[in-house]
Amino acid sequence: MRIVLGVGGGIAAYKAALLLRLFTEAGHSVTAVPTESALKFVGKATWEALSGRPVRTEVFEAVETVNHVRLGHEAELIVVAPATADLLARAAGGHADDLLTNTLLVARCPVLMAPAMHTEMWRHPATQSNVALLRERGVHVLDPAVGRLTGADSGPGRLPEPEEIFAAALALIAEAHDDAPHLGAEPASRPLAGRRVVVSAGGTREPIDPVRFLGNRSSGKQGAAIARAAIAAGADVTFVAAHIDVAPPDGADVVRVDSALELRDAMLAHVPAADVVVMAAAVADFRPSELQPSKIKKRDDMADPVITLVRNPDILVELVQRRNAGTDGTPSDQLIVGFAAETGDGGGTALEYGLAKLARKGCELLVLNEVGADESGAERVFGQDHNSALILARDGSEPERAAGSKDEVAGAVVRRIARALGTDHRPQREPVE
Known about the structure:
By secondary structure, the chain is α/β, with parallel strands linked by helices. The chain contains 13 helices and 19 strands.
């Protein structure tokens, strides 16, 4: 596939080099088109070495090939990363003052732009207007990630990780060309074509008063990656998002929720029409028994407040029970995938606890993450860009290890789902606790 990789003039340009490597390693022909400003961050030699192709930035270069038109005509996909505030403005305004903006003007292929800039720039009404206009014209503009920016600042404006942009490109091509080959060049690349998949992700927040809540450390990265992988595999995806630190996957029908009860309502509304359900959300086990109508104040007598907790519903178990009962129109062969975050202790290993949970919940597959800090004190799963998990199956088959970036783990989970759909995975009808 012929891909043009446009690179804007931001410090995140170094990540575009990693993105270029992902495309070329997948076997695609990539032409890098940096702006002059981008070359101040990453030099021309880097782009030429990684792509194996000459790099040009100006309209009056290679004029004998009419390069400023040819590139856009020949491109099958254009990805711009990072898309700075200035570049978004020039693209929205139809400017043609360098090779990249000329290429964008003449292209008729899918265009994906990944913004990166300071938070105030992203939130400025001018930038938001430019993004809205580009999206209205059919350009796919990702939301920036939330995190550390240049210097000590943090907030929305961070360039998504190269793996996330790459996965979004997969989904965009799959959406635009139902018969297009997978960018990863794998056989049987759309095994979920025609399937409906519901994915929940992120951590629920249980309100205590108008200011405070009980929450957890889930970022939603793994659930979002699974949704992207399912879209790339051809599925029609509904993404039920609690609190997440990443942009929802492009191409999914997004449903926003906050608390466990809201998540339950959303899942019960959308699951009956699904072929596959992936419960990757980190649902709080407990919630305050009552919501205080005003902020709880510190008392002068130093007395500590007492907050009574009650159990939240076990959404995964309820979905299995409803499917097994067949009372709400849910297909009896619906495949349900659970997630478990476990730690080992004196009573057993994380794997033993995971297998027990798989049997107790009644789902067909369970993705087991061992959470907590590793030997160095670093967090293993929550908020990280890499993951290591075991995929456990109710049919008793050997656990399958999935490790690498969260997109790579998501790919392994989706492939395991596809294999399960090709076998007789109909649930046993014993009661579920």
